[in-house]
Write a structure and sequence with these properties.
With about 200 residues, the protein is α+β, with helices and mostly antiparallel strands. It contains 7 helices and 7 strands; from the N terminus they run ααβαβαββαβββαα. It has helices at about 5-10, 20, 35-55, 75-85, 125-130, 175-180, 190-200, and strands at about 25-30, 60-70, 95-100, 110-120, 145-150, 155-160, 165-170. A hairpin with a 4-residue loop joins β5 and β6. The protein is globular.
Length: about 200
């Protein structure tokens, strides 16, 4: 499998952040509910798991796509890998790694490192924890990389961008419509107008 090509084919192009806005017709779910950092993480983990259990229902493997700004030193990369291991996510030897540049505003180009590999679906909560704690500084393990979870059979990408929310996008509209109906109580109120335009009233 060429992971880079597979990843882009699922959504129809290269992606970064804010998948809901970059690929119209997706879903955005609200996660944390306030409280302490641990309260927010646990609330987000519970809700994200509820949705992702359906995204990966019947699957044995998850294609994981990790994305991070390339650290200034090897020490930074070792720290990230250590945090992943502590979280129970070992980067497979059967992995693909590639780099590209991220241009934003007037800042200098930054190098972005990508790593893609497969894990058993049993690692779902471990991966979601890594995504949720991205900006929850007191908590660990915290690898500080973006975590995209892909169901290659159904053609779905789930991206928990931090404890606040999760985007789910796909060219497979029937699969998204099912998630829209099943988990409507978790959808982000702020973006309901756009989702109703895509999937109709609840």
């Amino acid at each position: 499998m060429n992971c880079k090509i597979t990843i882009q084919a699922i959504v129809g192009g290269k992606y970064r952040h804010a998948l809901f806005y970059r690929f119209p017709g997706g879903l955005r779910f609200a996660l944390s509910e306030g409280g302490s950092p641990l309260d927010m993480a646990l609330s987000a983990l519970r809700k994200a798991t509820t949705v992702c259990d359906d995204v990966f229902a019947g699957e044995e493997r998850i294609l994981v796509h990790l994305m991070a700004y390339a650290p200034a030193s090897r020490f930074g990369l070792r720290t990230m890998l250590k945090e992943l291991r502590v979280a129970g996510v070992a980067v497979s030897r059967e992995r693909e790694v590639w780099f590209d540049k991220y241009e934003h505003g007037d800042a200098d180009d930054e190098i972005v490192i990508h790593c893609a590999f497969e894990v058993p679906v049993a690692k779902l909560q471990n991966l979601l924890w890594c995504a949720i704690t991205l900006d929850l500084y007191p908590l660990s393990p915290r690898p500080r990389c973006r975590v995209y979870l892909l169901n290659t059979n159904k053609g779905i990408v789930a991206h928990t961008y931090d404890d606040r929310g999760m985007d789910v996008v796909s060219l497979n509209k029937p699969a998204l419509a099912d998630l829209y109906q099943r988990h409507h109580h978790l959808l982000c109120d702020h973006d309901m107008v756009a989702m109703r335009e895509s999937f109709g009233p609840l």
